[in-house]
Write a structure and sequence with these properties.
Layout: H1 13-20, E1 27-34, E2 39-48, E3 51-62, E4 65-72, E5 77-84, E6 90-98, E7 105-112, E8 115-122, E9 128-136, E10 140-149, E11 154-166, E12 169-176, E13 181-189, E14 197-205, E15 210-220, E16 225-232, E17 236-246, E18 249-258, E19 267-274
Parallel strand pairs: 1-19
Antiparallel strand pairs: 1-2, 2-3, 3-4, 4-5, 5-6, 6-7, 7-8, 8-9, 9-10, 10-11, 11-12, 12-13, 13-14, 14-15, 15-16, 16-17, 17-18, 18-19
Length: 276
Amino acid sequence: MSKGPGLFSDIGKKAKDLLTKDYNADQKFTVSTYSDAGVALTSTAVKKGGLSTGDVAAQYKYKNVVVDVKVDTESNIATTLTFTEIVPSTKTIASFKLPDYNSGKLEVQYFHDHATFTSAVALSQSPAVDVTATIGTPSIAFGAEAGYDTTSGCFTKYTAGISVTKPDSSASIILGDKGDSIKASYVHHLDQFKKSAAVGEITRRFSTNENTFTVGGSYAVDQLTVVKAKLNNHGRLGALLQHEVIPKSVLTISGELDTKALDKNPRFGLAIALKP
């Protein structure tokens, strides 16, 4: 694949990951194994409140094809087929779920040194179509996204964004929700290995005149331990500690509370991921 501006979904992704990734309020246990035949098997158990769920996922790679299959406790089967370079500089992704026969989706991604395009079509009688386009370079990119419902003949979404990326920082602005919201974010890496970073994000919704400002960051205590924290102007405080207990096996403890209503019970989460 070319080293172009990236997909539209990459705009603002670094800030979003810093503020949301690995934060959870559930108990989650994941075990992954790998075979010599190229099959990766992952089992996940989640306890949310008094409800326990789980799934088993398998991934098989062969040359330029990747097959992912996931089965959950309700016997739903989700399958994704990814084909790389069937046509030069493209990636084709086909996905479907059973027993929901109308959930099929076909997506084609095209990568160029100065542009990327994606087109996704739902495989149903009245398909919805999503299209994205991004132009620029790895340093600066402009992009747009649109969704169209062929049944109603209306646009379901349209979004535009811009991102600027430097070796030690990145910034983005996204106009979304059909022009009803704007989000600006900035990430600054504090070390050359990009293990510690600070992030700020502000979102304004025009229809309600509501502003949400969030600051946060991550700090690498050592090679095995990372701590993260975030706080918004509504008083929501979140924090987590992630430690690599043994090589490739990670323990994550996270929590969140409302600093403006300390009488409410805080939320805590625990995740364990074991890999060979």
